[in-house]
Amino acid sequence: MIDAAGLRVMKAIADEGSFTGAALSLGYSQPAISQMVRRLEQRTGTVLVERVGRNVRLTEAGQVLARHAVAVLSALDAAEEEVAAIAGLRAGRVRLMAFPSSSATLVPRALALVKQRFPDVQVTFTEAEPPESLAALKAGECDLAVAFAYEGTDVGRGEEDMDLFVTHKLLDDEVRLALPRTHPLADRDGIELSALATENWIAGCPRCRGHLLQMCANEGFTPNVGFETEDYVAVLGLVAEGLGVALIPDLILRTANHHDVVTLPITPSSRRTISVVTTADLQRVPAVQATIDALCEAAKAKPRVLASN
Amino acid sequence: MIDAAGLRVMKAIADEGSFTGAALSLGYSQPAISQMVRRLEQRTGTVLVERVGRNVRLTEAGQVLARHAVAVLSALDAAEEEVAAIAGLRAGRVRLMAFPSSSATLVPRALALVKQRFPDVQVTFTEAEPPESLAALKAGECDLAVAFAYEGTDVGRGEEDMDLFVTHKLLDDEVRLALPRTHPLADRDGIELSALATENWIAGCPRCRGHLLQMCANEGFTPNVGFETEDYVAVLGLVAEGLGVALIPDLILRTANHHDVVTLPITPSSRRTISVVTTADLQRVPAVQATIDALCEAAKAKPRVLASN
DNA sequence: TGGCTTCGATAACTTTCGGTTATGATCGCC
DNA sequence: GGCGATCATAACCGAAAGTTATCGAAGCCA
Questions:
Q1: Among A83, B67, B224, B252, which is least packed, fewest CB within 10 Å?
Q2: 3-state DSSP call for residue A272?
Q3: Which has the closest alpha carbon to A244: A177, A304, A188?
Q4: Burial letters for A234-268: b for 16+ Cβ neighbours within 10 Å, e otherwise?
């Protein structure tokens, strides 16, 4: 019934004391004010201004509207400013989910980049493996997921609704064989997977275990998996103690290595692709886009860290 | 930029969880919501909803708008309600000015009527003689003036801008001669003004004094005015003490009389007209109209009071 | 897996509302 | 009494907002 424009006009009339002044201050023409007031009067069914001589004066009801105008308009301005802040990266919240081994350096580096560039954008971070993080993304519980997919399977995921998601590849993560320094094969430059059919194996996270089984099946054998743990530090410990060998992504080795463990490239080579995943809608949110950018840059900066290691 | 309708829509979407639901709850069609959201999005330059499957979910910016919506809309409702209260006589303030002798019974009775009918309408009351009250009305310092004009002069006033004002006649007030009970003429049923040329006169308010001089001039003499006071009780006291005679409006005699004073009709008869004056704009304000009505009714009820006196 | 239902997007049309220009009426002032 | 300023009114114009009709797609259910 009453709209903000009407209130703005009433306030301008109260401030300026005349229709003409109000028109000037609002950038309208004088008749616009005139009929705007008339509209308001017949909508409210009340006299809002009294025409006295060639000036006008607000009635009590008119003063009421003018008084409320400041409250309404300031609330409107506040809303506008707040979304403008989000649009202008002066505010905003990004809920990021990433799988554990990415949170070692890739994610912290990206978060630091975002914080440096847009100090008021808040990125919250939760660890989650790709299946859960993508489910959370779908459920609207996060805005961004850092996920990985092993070569062969699709980048975003191997699942059906890949077109719902938008993925940006961050980096390729080579899978290497980890074995004890004391192992007979430890001094080789590389090794064929098929030569490891009789080893005891240590498996990582469920997806990694699946990938291990898949690769071995391709080579014609079923690995003897003696241990399973999601903690790659534990995997390295187990390997170091000579309890078995493991396939470990290179990304993990950059931050956690063990002086009793040697890693070798394998044949056929295998890698996983690490990507950041979001939705088409969310990607258009500035803070989300900024976080994606930061992640991409953090990923590009990675190899140097690797080389120095 | 952002309008209340947009906020209302955002809130409805937040509440209903879908465009269709919002459309239903607001009485719009579904496409209306759809393009309303799109408009808002391109105005704010931000993504406000994410389309997930066949439902929608608000983004952070969208939630911000929905959250502010309640503040803005409630402020708007408050404004609307307040003017509706004024329009519906559940609120409102009337600033009434009346000349002193009208405040004895006429005004109190009218105020009581208003208070009984519309307990929440506040009538404030200030005493003022017609010249000042009408000036105040013109200056916007009051809404209603109870004024009087002596026969011959115009009802609203004798001045130029009578068409600015709207007047409602309340009652005619007969002017009577007040003289001491001991006066030789005190037992007459009436008296010619011309027979009083040699009396000592006591004059009331400036306008009354002017009227006295005018009447006497019409009868061919100039009254010998020994006292002037605006306080009619004082006039009666002076008359009672035999210090002179006076012309006193009947309205005053209804509330203030003196057992040593006798009043008589005079010839030529004279009366003043008591009216309530406002402006055309203010008359359309419900509370003002209600007060006018109450004054008219209070004036009609008057004669009975007089008769019983 | 294939229809059925439902939901959002889009297009095209219509109407109403809000605004401007032009003009008139009136007031206050010189 | 004329002049300048102010509000009101009329006529006109355009944009914006809402509607109907239709499409595409998603989820649901058998």
A1: B224
A2: strand
A3: A177
A4: ebbbbbbeeebbbbbbbbbbbebbbeebbbbebee
Minimal CA–CA distance to B75: which of A231, A70, A286?
A70
The CATH number of the structural domain formed by A93-308 is 3.40.190.290
Please check the confidence at residue B305 and state whether its pLDDT lies above 50.
no
Closest-CA residue of chain A to B92 = A60
In terms of C-beta density within 10 A (0-12 exposed, 13-18 middle, 19 or more buried), how is residue B223 classed? Answer: buried
Arithmetic mean of pLDDT over chain A: 85
Contact A83 B65 (CB under 8 A): yes
Largest CA distance in chain A: 108
Q: Is the pLDDT of residue A115 over 90?
A: yes
Residue range A253-263: average pLDDT? 81
Residue B227: phi, psi to the nearest 5? -135, 150
Chain A positions touching B82 (Cβ under 8 A) are 64, 68
**DSSP designation for A45:** T
Q: What φ, ψ does residue A18 adopt, rounded to 5°?
A: -155, 155
- CB of B133 within 8 A of CB of B99? yes
Would you list the domain boundaries of chain A? Answer: 4-87, 93-308
Under a CB-based contact definition with an 8 Å cutoff, are residues A34 and B266 in contact? no
Q: Does the domain at residues B4-87 carry the CATH identifier 1.10.10.10?
A: yes
Q: Would the Cβ of A36 be found within 7 angstroms of any atom in strand C? A: yes
* Residue B38 pLDDT exceeds 50: yes
Residue B74, both tokens: 């409630």
Helices B30-44 and B4-16: angle between axes, nearest 10 degrees: 120
pLDDT score of A140 = 84
Footprint of strand D on the protein (CB under 7 A): A 18-21, 30-31, 34-35, 37-38, 51, 54-56, 161, 163; B 3, 5, 27-32, 35-36, 39, 52-54
State the Cα–Cα distance between residues A144 and A292, nearest whole angstrom. 8
Backbone angles phi, psi at A124, to 5 degrees: -100, 150
Task: Supply the DSSP string of A77-88, one letter for each residue.
Answer: HHHHHHHHHHHT
Distances A150 to A101, A130, A147, A205 between C-alpha atoms, Å: 15, 12, 10, 13
